[in-house]
C-alpha cells in the first residue's frame, strides 16, 4: 500500500507533513486525543487520586506531569504529595474536573458553566500556571462583556488579580459610563472594583450621577466605610446648586469639603475633568456650531473628549486661505486653553495643528481680522485623538 492509500484509509483524518530528511510523517492527532480523553477520571492504570469536595477522582501522574509544570513538581520532587496515592485538594470540584478534562483531551468545555464557575476555572488556571487556558478564558469573558455582567466580571478579575481582564472591564465601563452609573448592576461592585474605576479620567459620566450612584451603593453596602470612596468623586465638577442640594443632603460629605469644592470650582482653571478617549474618531462630527460673533465660532461637542489634533478644512472659498485663525479649547466655556494657530499654506485647503492630549467639550476658532466678518462660515473643523500612547492629563 502506497503513502496515498495509507493516508486515505486511516481513521481520524490524518494530516500529512513532509520532511526533507525523514520522508512523509502522518499525524493522527484527533484519534490520539480521543484515546487520551477516555482515560480522564478513569481508574484504568490510575496511579494517583485526588480527593476534592469528598469525591475521589482517579488520575495518571505521567499525563498530569507532562501537561502541567505544577504537577510535575508535585510528583517529581521533595513535596510530600510525590509519594502519596491519594492527595486532598482544596479546590472547587466542578472547576477541577474541567481542568482534568483539559489535561487529557486538550479541550476547554465551559458551555455548561455559569460565570462564577468560569472564574473558578480561571483561578485554577492561574494557580496551576496554565497560561494557554487562562488566556482563552480571559478572552471569552472579555467578548461576553455587557452592561449587565461587567461589574461582576470586574469583581472577579480584581479578586484573582488578572490585570488584562481587569483593564478590559474598566475600558468597557469607560464606554458605557453614562448608562452604567444608573444600572442596577452598579450596586454589585466591590469596594476594590470601585477603587479601580472611580479614579479613571476616562470614566466620563456626569459627576453628579456618579456621586448619586455611589450614594445608592453605600445604602446597599452599609457595612463598608464609604469615606475613601467619596474622596474619589470629583466634587468641583458638580454644579454649586447640586453641591448645596443633593450632595449636602446625602449626609456622606462633610460641609467643609463641600465648601472647598465650591471654592475650587470658582477659582481653578484646571479642574480634574473626566473625558472620553475615542481614538481616531472625529468627535466634532455632528457637533453644534455656535456663531458667537461674526469673527468667533464655537463647536459644542456631544461630550467631553480627549483630543490632540484639530484639522481645519476650507469649504471651497479662496478667501479662507488669506487669513489666520486662533484655536482654543475648553470644558466649561469659562476657561479657555490656546492650542495653536491655523494658517493655511498657499493653495492648501486643509491645515492641521497637534498639541498635548487634553479634555475638551468646546472648541473655539476666531478670526482676529475685523475686516472680514463671514469667513468662519467657510471653515469646517475635525477634532480627534490620533496617537495611541495617550497620557491623560490629571
From TrEMBL:
InterPro entries: BACK, BTB/POZ_dom, BTB_POZ_domain_cont_9, SKP1/BTB/POZ_sf. One of its GO terms (biological process) is circadian behavior. It comes from the Eukaryota. One of its GO terms (cellular component) is cytoplasm. SUPFAM superfamilies: POZ domain (SSF54695). This is BTB/POZ domain-containing protein 9-like. Residues 1-23 are annotated as: Disordered. Residues 1-12 have a biased composition (Polar residues). PANTHER family: BTB/POZ DOMAIN-CONTAINING PROTEIN 9 (PTHR46306), BTB_POZ DOMAIN-CONTAINING PROTEIN 9 (PTHR46306:SF1). PROSITE patterns: BTB. It comes from Drosophila madeirensis (Fruit fly). Residues 46-112 form the BTB domain.
Amino acid at each position: 500500500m502506497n503513502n496515498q492509500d495509507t493516508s486515505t484509509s486511516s481513521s481520524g483524518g490524518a494530516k500529512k507533513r513532509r520532511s526533507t530528511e525523514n520522508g512523509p510523517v502522518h499525524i493522527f492527532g484527533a484519534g490520539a486525543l480521543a484515546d487520551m480523553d477516555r482515560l480522564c477520571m478513569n481508574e484504568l492504570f490510575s496511579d494517583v487520586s485526588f480527593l476534592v469536595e469528598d469525591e475521589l477522582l482517579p488520575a495518571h501522574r505521567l499525563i498530569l506531569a507532562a501537561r502541567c509544570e505544577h504537577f510535575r513538581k508535585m510528583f517529581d520532587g521533595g513535596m510530600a504529595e510525590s509519594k502519596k496515592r491519594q492527595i486532598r485538594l482544596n479546590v472547587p470540584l466542578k472547576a477541577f474536573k474541567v481542568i482534568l478534562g483539559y489535561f487529557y483531551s486538550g479541550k476547554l468545555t465551559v458551555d455548561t458553566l455559569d460565570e462564577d464557575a468560569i472564574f473558578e476555572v480561571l483561578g485554577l488556571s492561574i494557580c496551576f500556571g496554565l497560561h494557554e487556558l487562562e488566556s482563552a478564558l480571559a478572552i471569552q469573558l472579555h467578548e461576553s462583556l455587557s452592561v449587565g455582567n461587567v461589574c461582576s466580571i470586574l469583581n472577579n478579575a480584581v479578586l484573582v488579580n488578572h490585570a488584562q481582564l481587569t483593564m478590559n472591564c474598566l475600558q468597557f465601563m469607560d464606554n458605557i459610563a453614562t448608562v452604567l452609573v444608573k444600572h442596577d448592576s452598579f450596586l454589585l461592585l466591590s469596594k476594590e472594583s470601585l477603587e479601580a474605576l472611580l479614579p479613571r479620567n476616562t470614566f466620563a459620566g456626569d459627576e453628579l450621577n456618579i456621586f448619586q450612584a455611589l450614594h445608592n451603593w453605600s445604602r446597599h453596602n452599609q457595612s463598608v466605610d464609604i469615606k475613601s470612596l467619596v474622596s474619589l468623586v470629583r466634587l468641583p465638577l458638580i454644579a454649586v446648586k447640586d453641591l448645596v442640594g443633593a450632595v449636602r443632603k446625602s449626609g456622606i460629605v462633610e460641609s467643609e469639603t463641600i465648601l472647598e469644592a465650591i471654592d475650587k470650582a470658582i477659582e481653578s482653571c484646571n479642574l480634574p475633568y473626566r473625558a472620553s478617549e475615542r481614538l481616531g474618531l472625529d468627535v466634532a462630527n455632528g457637533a453644534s456650531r455656535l456663531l458667537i460673533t461674526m469673527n468667533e465660532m464655537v463647536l459644542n461637542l456631544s461630550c467631553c473628549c480627549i483630543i490632540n489634533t484639530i484639522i481645519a478644512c476650507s469649504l471651497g472659498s479662496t478667501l479662507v486661505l488669506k487669513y489666520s485663525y486662533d484655536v482654543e479649547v475648553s470644558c466649561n466655556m469659562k476657561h479657555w486653553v490656546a492650542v495653536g494657530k491655523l494658517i493655511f499654506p498657499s493653495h492648501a485647503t486643509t491645515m492641521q495643528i497637534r498639541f498635548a492630549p487634553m479634555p475638551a467639550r468646546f472648541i473655539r476658532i476666531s478670526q482676529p481680522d475685523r475686516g472680514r466678518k463671514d469667513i468662519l462660515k467657510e471653515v469646517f473643523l475635525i477634532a480627534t485623538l490620533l496617537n495611541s500612547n495617550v497620557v491623560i492629563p490629571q
